[in-house]
Amino acid sequence: MTSFRRLSQGGRIDRGRPLNFTFNGGKRQGFAGDTLASALLAANDIVVGRSFKYHRPRGVMGAGLEEPNALFTTGKGGTEEPNAIGPALELRDGLAARSQNAWPSPRFDLMAVNSLASPLFASGFYYKTFIGPFQKSWMFYEPFIRRAAGLGKTSYAADDVRHETRNAFCDVLVVGAGPAGLAAALAAARSGVSVVLAEQDFELGGQLLSGADAALEAWRAETVAALQAAENVRLLPRAVVQGIYDGNHAIISVGGTALESLRARSIIYAAGAVERPLVFENNDRPGVMLASALRSLANRFALVPSQRAVLLTNNDSAYEAAFDLAAHGVAVTVADLRREISGALMSRAAGQGIVVFPESGIAEVIAKPDVRAVKLSGRHAVTIECDVLGMSGGWSPLVHLTAHGGIKPRYDEAIAAFVPGAFASGHFAAGACNGVFGSRAAIASGDAAARAALGHLGRAKLPAAATLPEGEDLAYAITPVWNATQGSKGKAFVDFQNDVTAKDVAQAHDEGYSNIEHLKRYTTLGMGTDQGKTSNINALAIMAGLRGVGIGDVGTTTFRPPFTPLTVGAIAGRSVGHHFRPTRRSPLHDWHQKNGATFIEAGLWKRAWYYDWAGKTPQEAYVKEMELVRHNVGLSDVSTLGKIDVQGRDAGEFLNRVYVNGFAKLPVGKARYGVMLNDDGLVLDDGTTSRISETQYYLTTTTAQAGEVMSWLEFLAQCHWPELDVHLASLTDEWGGMSLAGPKAREALALALPGVDLSNEGLPYMGVKDITFEGVPVRLLRLSFSGELGYEIHCPANYTEALWEHLLKAAAPLGIKPYGLESLASLRIEKGHVAGLELDHRNSLDDLGLGKMASATKPFVGDVLRQREDMMAPERWSLVGLELLEAGKTLRGGSILFAANDEIKGHGRGYITSVTWSVELQRFIALGLYQGGLKHEGEEIICAFPLKNEQVKARIVSPMFIDSKGTRLHA
Amino acid sequence: MLEARSPLGTAAHFDLPGITLREAAGFTLTQLAGEEKALKKACGKLPAFGKADVQEAATSFRIAPSQVWVVGAAPGKLAGLHVTPLSSGRTRIALEGARARALLAACAAVDFALESFAPGQVAMTGFHHTPVLIHCTGEDTFHIYAMRSFAHSVWGWLVDAAQGL
Fold it and tell me: Which of A566, A874, B99, B106 is the most buried (most CB within 10 A)?
C-alpha cells in the first residue's frame, strides 16, 4: 500500500513554520518549503484526482512542471483557478485545493463508470462516434462533448486577483536556475553586464535542490548568495519564461500575477530536463512515480516511502534515487531493463543493500487502487510488495523555448533525446537543456555559455573558466528500451493527462495517422496543460517502431508558447474593467457631466447623447431637442470631428488629388463639402474643408474616420507624392468645436460676439471667418449639418468650455439650449445628409447620390477603380429616402427592403441605414440603400425586420425630406 | 480673456512613496514643419532625434524628419516654415520620484534605465494604446506629453500602474 513517512530531520522544509491548508475541504498541515504535492503525500493523500477520459484514480507522478496527473483547482469565486500543478505549487497558509475530474471524491468517483466503456474511447472516438446518423450530427453532439471535455472548470466570478504587466531590458537572460543557469548567471554577473535569472521554482538550484551531494549544495548556496548580493543581477524566482519571440523578446509570468515583457541582448537557455515515464500496464496507478520525483521527495521534502520501493529503469540516473532512498532506510529493488549495467553501479548498489534485477521489466502492477506490489517480467519473474514503483525512461531536455522561433529540435542517439537543433544569433544553451547531464558538467557548460554570450555582447575581456565543485558526476548511460507492450489485462499509458495508451498509438498508426502531427490530433496525445512534457518521446518511440524508422525521422510536434498554462487574467493584465480600452473625452465633457447629459460611446469617444432638460429617455429627449433646432436655436458639441491642418505650397494640389471635387481654386475664406475615395474607388469619408490662406486649409472629417483619414493622408503625402510641399497636423485634440443651429442662430451668435459682421455679406453660407474673441482665436464656419441656418464655432480646446458657456449665457434670452448626438444625427437624416452609417466603405459615389461631385477635369484617388463594371452597374443599391405609411408603427434601422410583390425571404433589395422620427413631417422617416435607388421614387415597398417578425409599408422618396431648395441654409 | 481649462484640471495630483504625478499645464507648444534647412535656420540647430534641445526660452523636440515641436517661445524668424499651434492639444504630465522609472517601465516597452534614458533624452512611444512623448528632464523627473482627449485615460492608466508597483 502506498504510504510515505516524513523524516525527522533533513530536507529543505522548515519544520518550525507549519502551514495549514485544506484539500477537498479537509484540514491538512504542511511546512514552509513544501509544495502542495509533497504536503499531500506527507498526509498520505495518495489518490488526488481522476483521469480525464476514463476517470481512473491518479496520484502524484512527477516532481515539477511536467506533472500530468496531480492538477488542482485552488481558491474560490474571484480567486478560483483550475489546473494548478501540485508538485510546482508552493504551499502557503490558507491554501484551499480541490481535486479535479472527481465526484464526489477522488477515491470514489461516479464517473469511473467511463472505465467500463473504455473500448468505446479508443483513438478517434469522437470523430467516429458522432459523425452520424445525420449530416449535421456533429453540430448536435458538439455542445455535449464540450461540456464533458476540458480539464478543470473556472469560475464565472470576476477576477479578484490584480495582474500586472511590465517591460524590462537586460544584457543576459538566463532561463533556469539549476547548476547550468546559476553558473551562467554568475559568470555573466561577474563581468558586469545586467543579468536576469528566471526560475520557475520558488527556490534557486533546480536539480541540486533534490540531490544529496554536500559539495554541490555548498556551491549552490555560495553561488545564490553571490547572485543575491550582485547589484547587476535581478533574480526572478517563481517565474516561468512562457515564450521566446523575435528580437530576443521573452514573455515571463512572474508569481502568477505579473507578466513581464523582457528584451534581452542575449539569452542562455538552462531550462533543464524532465524525466520520462516508462510504458507498461497500469503504469498510471497511484504510487507509480518518476524515480526523480521519489528522489526529490526524499532529499528536498524529507519524505520517503514507508518501507519498500521498486525502481524500474532503462538508464543510470534511477540509481541516484535508489541510493538516496536506501540511505534513508527504504528497502529498494531495481528492475533494470538493460542487459549491461556498469560495475560501479552494481557494486555500490550491493554495498547499500539494493537488489538489482537486470533485464527485468514489469509484468503487472498490483494496485487497489494504489500500488501494493509489482510482478517483474523477464529473467526474474518475482512479485515484490512495495509502497511505490519509481520509473525512469531517461531524460528529455526542455528544448521548448529554443524551438519557439521555429527551429526544430534534433534527435541525439547518444542520450536518446531531442536537443536544440540550432540557435538564433545571441542565443546559447547549457546543461541538461542542451543534453549535458550531470551537475558538474552542467556548471561547466553554463559557465562556457556565459562566456559565449559575453563574446556576443562584445565584451573583450572574458572571465576565466569557473572552478568546479569537488567530486564526480554519476555517468549517464541509457539503452533505449521502450518496452511499450500492452496486453489485455490493463492499460499502458503513454500520455497520462489525456488517457492515451500504447494501444491507441498503434491503432492510430493502423488507421493511417502515423505522422506525428496527425497522431496528436487523432488521439489528443501531447495536448492538455502539460503539452506532452512526459509523453512525447515515448509516443515518438512507439510510432518510430511501428513505422520502422528512427525517432529522429518521426520528428516532434511544434512547440508553441506558453510553456505552462497561463491564466487569461495574466494575459489581460491591467486592461480590464475601466481600463479595457482608453476612452476619449471632448473638452466639453465636464460641462456635459455637470449639466444633465447622458453619455453614449461613439468609437472611443464619450459623447453627450441627450440632455435631461429635454426628457428622461432618449426617445423623448431627441424629439424635443430636434424641435429646439427646427424652431429656435440649439448648441451641440462637435469637438470629436476630425480636424487636420493642411499646409504647404502644394496644399491645394494635394487636396485636389485626395478629394473627388476640386479644392485648388477654392477662394480664401470659403468652405466646401468634399468627398474622398479609397484607392478601390469606394467612398472613404466626407467633410468640409476651408481655405484659411493661399497655403493653408482646415480639413474636417467625420468622427468615425478621423484617424483613418489622417493616416491615409500622411501615407499619400509621404509615400506617393513626396514631391509635394504639404505638411499635415492633426488638430482634432487642439480645436474644440460647437454647432450652433436653428432659425435664431445668427441672432444668438450676434449676442455672443457683438461687433462681428454676421450678415450674408459678412459671413455668407459656406463662408469662413477667423476672429479673435477675448484674446482667443476663434474660427467661424457657416455650415449646416442639420439643414437649418447654422454655424460651427471652433477654438483652441483650452478655451472651448469657456466659449461654450459664454454662448449659452449670451443667447439665453432666446431660449438656447444644448442638444446631443441623437438629435444631431436625426436632424441630418431629415436633411438627407449621409454619415457614418451610409459611409461604410461599401458604397460608391453614385450609390450615395454624390456622383455629380466627381470632377471630370482632374485625376483623384479612386477615380479609375470607381469605374469598374460592377461599380457602374445600374441596379446597385443606392441611397433613397423612406416614409413610413402605417400610422402607429415604426421603422427600424437594419430592416430589409422588399418590393411590394416580393416574397419576404433572403437579403431583399436593400436595407435601412438610418431612422428617425421627423418633427417636420410628423412620421418616421429613414435613409436606406435600395436596388436601383431613386428610379423607384414613389413606389410603395415593404420594410421587414425578421428579428421582431415585423413588416411595415413605406414609400420611396427623395432623401432630402426638408427644405430641398436650401432656403434655410441661406437665410 | 476667456478662462483656460487644462485637459486634466489643475487638481490633478497623485502621490505615492517614490512617485508624484501632476499636470504641468500652462505651456505653449508649437509645431514647426518644413524642410530641414528652414528648420535649422529657425531653430539655430536641429534637435537630434531622441534628444531634447533645451534652451533658455524653449525646449525643442524633433518629432519627424520635417517636424519640430517647440515648448516655450517659438523662434521669431519662421521663413519657409509652417506653424501649427498645439498648446491645447496635449496634456503635460510631470512625473517624478525614485520609482518614476519603474512606473514608466510598467507602461511602455522602452528601456528607461538611467544609462539608456538619461536627462535630456526623449522617447516617442505609446501608453495604453495612445501616443505619448516622454522627456527625461532630470535623473528622476519626466514630462509626459499625451493627447488631450486621452488625458484622463492616460492619467488613470499611470495611477493604476503606480498602485501596482
Answer: B106
pLDDT at A909 over 60: yes
In sequence order, the 6+-apart residues with CB closer than 8 A to the CB of A852 are none
Q: Which residues pair with A274 in a beta bridge?
A: A396
pLDDT score, position A63: 92
Cβ(A211)–Cβ(A219) below 8 Å: no
| Buried b / exposed e along A123-142 (16+ C-beta atoms within 10 A) | bbbeeeeeeeeeeeeeeeee
Q: Would A608 be classed as within a structural domain?
A: no
**The domain spanning residue A705 has which CATH number?**
3.30.70.1400
Q: Which residue of A has its CA nearest to B154?
A: A582
Amino acid at A317: S
CB-side neighbour CA atoms (13 Å) of A106 = 27
Helix segments in A632-779, DSSP class H: 651-658, 706-715, 745-752
Q: Taking the model in full, what pTM does it have?
A: 0.92
Question: What tens digit of pLDDT does each residue of A34-87 get?
Answer: 999 999 999 999 999 988 888 899 999 999 999 999 999 999 888 899 999 999
The reply to whether B160 touches chain A by the CB within 8 Å rule is: yes
Asked if A8 and A116 sit in the same domain, the reply is yes
**Can you tell me whether residue A54 is helix, strand or coil?**
coil
The DSSP symbol for A290 reads E
> Considering only CB atoms, which chain A residues are within 8 Å of B108?
167
pLDDT at A304: 97
pLDDT at A875 over 60: yes
Query: Is the CB of residue A581 less than 8 Å away from at least one CB of chain B?
Result: yes
Contact assessment for residue A810 and residue A859, using Cβ atoms and an 8 Å cutoff: no
**Count: domains in chain A:** 5
| Average pLDDT taken over every residue of chain A | 94
Chain A interface includes B161 (CB < 8 A): yes
The beta-carbon neighbor of A802 closest among B2, B66, B160 is: B2
Do A268 and A403 reside in the same domain of the chain?
Answer: yes
Sign (positive/negative) of CA torsion A220, A225, A226, A232?
positive
A contact test, residue of B23, B149, B155 with most A CBs within 10 A? B149
| Domain boundary assignment for chain B | 13-26+89-163, 29-85
Q: Residues 46..65 of B with a Cβ closer than 8 Å to A: which?
A: none
User: Which residues of A, range 747-776, sit inside 8 Å of B by Cβ?
Assistant: 773-776
A164 vs B82, B106, B130: nearest CB: B106
Task: Based on the fold, state whether residues A684 and A740 are members of the same structural domain.
Answer: no
Check pLDDT > 80 for residue A135: no
CB of A261 within 8 Å of any CB in chain B? yes
DSSP string, A75-124: S-GGG-EEEEEGGGSB--TT-EEEESS-SB-SSSBGGGGGGGGGGGGSTT
DSSP per-residue string spanning A663-701: -TTPPTTBEEEEEEE-TTSSEEEEEEEEEEETTEEEEEE
d(CA A495, CA A922): 72
> What's B13-26+89-163's CATH class?
alpha beta
| Residue A561 covered by a domain | no
Chain B CB contacts of A773 below 8 Å? 2
**Encoded amino acid at A764, one letter:** P
3-state secondary structure of A17: strand
Could you tell me the residue range of the domain that residue A911 belongs to? Answer: 874-971
Same domain, A98 and A42: yes
Place of cell 461516479: A110
Cell reading at A444: 561547466
Which distant-in-sequence residues (6+ apart) come within 8 Å of B95 by Cβ? B19, B20, B21, B103, B104, B141, B142, B143, B144, B158
Q: What is the 3-state secondary structure (H, E, C) of A512-544?
A: CCCCHHHHHHHHCCCCCCCCCCCCHHHHHHHHH
At residue A484, does pLDDT exceed 60?
no
Q: Are residues A760 and A903 in the same domain?
A: no
Cβ pair B33:A732 closer than 8 A: no
